Amino acid sequence: MIDKIFHTYGNDSISTVLDLGCGTGNHAFPLAGRGYEVVGVDCSENMLTQAHAKLTNTRTKLKLSFREEDIRSVKLPGQFDAALMMFAVLGYQLENRDVLATLTSARQNLRAGALLIFDVWYGPAVLMNAHRNAPELLRLPTVKFFDLLRANSMSPVMCVQFRSTCGESQERDSY
Question: Residues 125, 129, 135, CA angle at the centre, nearest 5°?
Answer without folding.
Answer: 115
